[in-house]
Amino acid sequence: MLQQNILSKGFIKEVFKSYQGEGKFVGARQIFIRLANCVFNCKGCDTDFSFSENFLCEGTKYRNPISPKDFFQILRKHYDFDLFHSVSITGGEPLIQKDFLRDFLPIMKDSGIKMFLETSGYLVDEIIELSDYFDIISVDIKMKSVFGYGYPANLIRDLKKIDHKVYYKVVISEDIDLKEIKAVFVEMVKNGVDELYIQFINNCLNLDLLDKLSDIGYSYGIKIFFVPQVHKLIGIF
Ligand code: SF4
Question: How far apart are CA 201 and CA 204, in angstroms?
């Protein structure tokens, strides 16, 4: 298997243009850069984050691994950045390739386009380390009762220093433990976070459960926003 140990070269899974389908920025027109690799093995994960020798950008094949500068040139060739809201760095868990991102993100930042990170929330130190290069950071709060293991205990507390860039998303199913989500609300209140975006795994909505969570959330002073995975509803990537 290919490994990411070649200087700061990156392993890309795919690059495409589409519209953000989750959370606070639903509908934003974005360039999506999906990086390979994840090590977290969440229950029910259906994302293909495997390493591959090539990746596609708008239908053209390029070889992995790729240097930050070469990758930037490819993006420039395919896209006019002025025609997009932002560039979304997603995965897998993109922060696993932090060495690549450390070199690639400053180049992107210099180009002037907004940078958007979508992360599982498992790598708190890496989020903070690279936060200067991102304008918007979408952080999942993973529920142990849903995914098999939960968010890091220091997640919300440590991200307080960059809270103007961060919004939190929680993906739920009928397996959710109400005690666990109440503990999240307590942690949010303690750290001055008052918004939470909720989606159901595979868009399997349970309205009674959503109402229950909304009641609890609002009783803690947390504004709950239900946002389904819009891209899946309308059949786009
Ligand atoms: S963090 Fe995301 S990509 Fe990684 S295993 Fe969990 S759900 Fe899948």
Answer: 6
- Compute φ and ψ for 12, nearest 5 degrees: -100, 145
User: From the CA of 117, how far away is ligand 1's center (Å)?
Assistant: 14
CATH number for domain 12-170, candidates 2.60.40.10, 3.20.20.70, 3.40.30.10, 2.60.200.30:
3.20.20.70
Amino acid symbol at 26: V
pTM score:
0.95
10-residue mean pLDDT series, the chain (237 residues): 63 97 97 97 92 96 98 98 98 97 97 97 98 98 96 98 97 97 98 98 95 98 95 79
Give just the sign of the alpha carbon dihedral 156, 135, 40, 176: positive
Query: Which residues form the pocket of ligand 1, taking CB atoms under 6 Å from any ligand atom?
Result: 38, 40-42, 45, 47, 49, 91-93, 120
